[in-house]
Design brief:
Layout (H helix, E strand, L loop, with lengths): L13 H8 L3 H12 L4 H7 L1 H4 L4 H31 L4 H9 L3 H8 L9 H7 L3 E2 L9 H8 L13 E2 L27
Antiparallel strand pairs: 1-2
Helix pairs in contact: 1-2, 1-5, 2-5, 3-5
Length: 191
């Protein structure tokens, strides 16, 4: 594991772009430099052919797209390395795999087990020794909530978060599901 595992290295996309597209490196370097200066692909194709070695608009667009992808890949790699290093979970094997990844999906697959989970009220409560009561425990009382809040029959009543100490032997306490963001399915009633 290197000391600079999370430090982004100055990345030169030219060799990778030239190899991937089968184009001469000097022309690719000139095209990338011109793009970095703010020139557009049509402008470069029409007025800067001498600098790119005669690359056409299709080749220039391919260079632009591939360069963008590779830069985003390197930025993401650096962010993932920083995150896993900060967690203290970066092993030499994982670092090697992350540095060898050639696609964003491959990077994300390697990172998935180390991705920090979002902090929710329930996760903060669990950190403090409390647990949340699963919705299954409320299902038998939905008619009371419906009646008290005057909820129409065509709407679904979902009762949410209750905090307490869990009974680990109770079946509902062992139900763990993925949850959508609360704003996707919640209507708030106030008095």
């Amino acid at each position: 594991m290197t000391d600079d595992a999370a430090t982004p290295v100055s990345f030169d996309p030219v060799p990778a772009v030239a190899f991937a597209l089968g184009l001469p490196a000097p022309g690719v370097r000139a095209a990338i430099d011109l793009l970095d200066e703010g020139n557009t692909v049509p402008f470069i194709a029409r007025y800067r052919k001498e600098r790119t070695g005669g690359l056409d608009e299709v080749q220039l667009r391919a260079i632009e797209d591939r360069r963008t992808y590779l830069v985003e890949l390197e930025d993401r790699r650096a962010a993932i390395l920083a995150s896993v290093t900060e967690q203290g979970k970066l092993t030499p094997e994982l670092e090697t795999k992350l540095r060898a990844a050639t696609a964003k999906a491959e990077l994300e697959d390697l990172y998935a087990p180390y991705r920090p989970r979002r902090k929710t009220r329930a996760s903060v409560a669990r950190e403090k020794g409390l647990h949340t009561c699963p919705q299954a425990a409320f299902s038998r009382y939905q008619h009371v909530v419906r009646r008290e809040l005057k909820v129409p029959d065509d709407q679904v009543v979902i009762c949410g978060l209750a905090l307490g100490y869990a009974d680990p032997d109770a079946v509902p306490n062992n139900l763990i599901t993925e949850r959508a963001p609360i704003t996707d399915f919640t209507t708030w009633f106030t008095e």
